Amino acid sequence: MKHFLSAADLTRERALELFRVAAELKQRWKRGRRGTPLAGRAMALIFEKPSLRTRVTLEVGLVQLGGRGVYLSGQEIGLGTRESVPDVARNLSRWVDGIAARVYAHDTVTGLARHATIPVINGLSDFEHPCQALADYFTLYERGLDLSKITLAWVGDGNNVCNSVLLLGALLGTRLTAACPPGYEPAEHVQATVARLGGRLTVTTEAPEAVGGADVVYTDVWTSMGQEAERERRAEAFSRYQVNAKLLGFARPSALVMHCLPAHRGEEITDDVVDGPASIVLDQAENRLHAQKAVILTLLGGSLDDA
After folding, report:
1. This prediction's pTM
2. 19, 136, 177, 224: most buried by Cβ count inside 10 Å?
3. Helices 12-30 and 160-172, packing angle to 10 deg
């Protein structure tokens, strides 16, 4: 694995190995073991979009591994305007050991990877959010769930997070359902890739059907960054797709609730659900730190022996 641009860049075996590394790094840190496997190493952190979880977990993760991150805003670099993507990639390759990029267009992150001679991590694009999906399934893995025997129901927009969740779920053997309003389903080529990977995916317009018997219920905002002009139209289209106590009643009694955050409370999810006993949203957020550390350590060639 040279880069981590898509959940489909992984194999089942690679994903499970990353889970094992993430679990070990998490436990070592909580036990106070402070190794520095990336001492003297640095990553460029390119952020065209605002961020809480991605920026903090990348920067803190690098510190915990003994390295450091160099934050670069989109305005500073001017990707594709002030300076071309290939030139940015080639220059950074001379100075740092890796690049993590949170960008608007997926073509930007693939362009960085194409022209860089160092590893590139997709910290979010309009097509995927693979770091989020990795942390999500790691959260289920560390709870002892057999990922090949559970059903995960996605409710809402077939967006970038949905794409990564479906692709990684297909690799792990998870049974997948997705309830989306007409016109907001996961892209056809994503569904085709899920099928090619041997995934079991059912797409429906009925939320109760998707959630019925599910072990995990996952939702995300109805309007993502960059879609603000569509807010009213989306609010109307998604009004039947709120994850609330009534909808959760169709899932298994032991079902877990996931959200990648930030949440628009009272829209895609209600307070009583996101703050309720079934919610593991803060576990997901915490595990972004450790899952990303596992990716960084692997891509930069660090060793657990030094962690």
Report:
1. 0.97
2. 136
3. 100
